[in-house]
Amino acid sequence: MINTRTAPRSRTLRGTAAAALLGAAALVLTACSGSASVGDTSWGTLDAQGEPAMTFTADGKAFGTDGCNIVNGSWTEEKGKVTFGPLASTMMFCEGVDTWLSGASTAVVEGDKITFNDEDGKKIGSLKKTEFTAPK
């Protein structure tokens, strides 16, 4: 007598094992493909007078301060590079404050640091990651 249940069960187990292996490979490739998204992260100290800070929300909005002026805009991310849409900024004068953040065009995250670049690709500043604070 031939056991007809063995062949289909064996194929099912092989299919399940293959699917699990492909899933694990996809997770490994995703983990190695670059840094995590900047969505829902904060950088710099948001409540420090005269200090720059930026918060990125998962819906593609950026909120922050250059230490003097409010800076808002949008962002996208591709292959670990953040690109800003036009950043709007108030235009107050604050003596002794370097307002470099309002000139950001792109940014790159490396560990717990984000480095901002101007439209020529020149580094203009960096901030350390802090606890995410949702904009009000």
From TrEMBL:
Keywords: Signal, Stress response. It comes from the Bacteria. Residues 1-36 form the signal peptide. InterPro entries: DUF306_Meta_HslJ, HslJ-like_sf. Residues 47-124 form the DUF306 domain. This is Heat shock protein HslJ. It comes from Leucobacter komagatae.
